[in-house]
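>> received
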Amino acid sequence: MDHTRTFPSLPGVRPHVRFRVRPRRPTALVFAAVSAVAGLAVSSCAAPSPDSPSAFTSFENVQAEADGQTVDLWMYGGDEQGNAYVDDVLAPAAAAEGVTLRRVPITDTADAVNRVLSERQAGRTDGSVDLVWVNGANFSTGQQAEAWRCDWTGLLPNMELTDPEDPLLLNDFGTPVDGCEAPWHKAQFTFFYNSATVTDPPTTLEGILQWAKDHPGRFTYPAPPDFTGSVFLREVMLSAAGGADEVPLDFSDAAFDEHSPAALDALTGVAPSLWREGATYPRDEQALNTLFADGELDIAMTYGPATLTDLVASGALPDTTRVLTLEEGTVGNASFLAIPANASDPAGAMVVANLALSPDQQAAKADPGTWGQFPVLDPGRLTPEDQALFDQLPDSPVVPTYEELSRNAHGELSAEWVPALDEAWRQDVATTR
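>> returned
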């Protein structure tokens, strides 16, 4: 199976000749890159909105309403461990609460947002989407269209086990959460390498790019708009700017024009040294892992480092795989569960979201053998018995603790940066090969 995406040279341009295309001013790009979603977002704002779940006066009231409901959870279907966790662990626990949890696999979270917006545009108040695994631009798009139910997370008893001041839980790619989604787990963008072939790994992102030039063909990244490829672009931009504090969180044309050229120059400069000389890129993180496992790459990347433990244990990655932490830190975020404004079974969705925040579920999900996702709970708010659930999790020979991984971490830029940089990369980097 071909796991790559090829970008042919432009007519009349010889391969491997570098040329510059000035990145298009991205005001329009933000919406063009998500045209299907954004087009509906504008028109759906006028759609009728059902009663808000804030009408519930207590969680007991929510539970009574939820009894017997079926919750359709729309989530990315390409993560086998995630699918198995929902089907084998979370769904049975929901059934014990009187709620049937039905997983709806999708290829892209935007598919769920599109469905919500199109159904609201059609005036449906009995939407087919009850719960969405979401973050970033998809959450922002739905928020702008008033497509999410809000002011409901405060009713969840297990929200009290999270840190109310945790910035990763307060903002989602720069968009205030405002009670419109419940946290599910954390992630930390991370590089990893084969210690059998890389004996002196670089410790900065600039060092990684230089290492790639010194070792042609042994490094690459997924093609944006793949999620992992996109975050790599942002990391390069932050590094080229001199650090995360140098780039404003909020997107603007002026900020883009100031900070994107250096990143695009760095990416264009390293392209000839990438795998297949940058003529083609892995289509996603799974394809990148395959290249790493096959020995074609020595350094790779992931936004889900906790999953590396099981990938190594299962033989999917070599047992010499090790995590590479950077001196300047890397970007971290959280993912969430959101309830559409027109969900058919919002009470059941709230019960599932609360259950997903329980120490039992968070610990089960954190086990590398189950899914390997970092919890969102504040250890200082757990009972000794609940903390013991996490203390008993096996140590990883591959992945350091979340505290070590997130040292010097920085938060995500606002969602508008994502499609703008992706499109600039497509114009200015991908088409140069």
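>> The radius of gyration is 22 Å.
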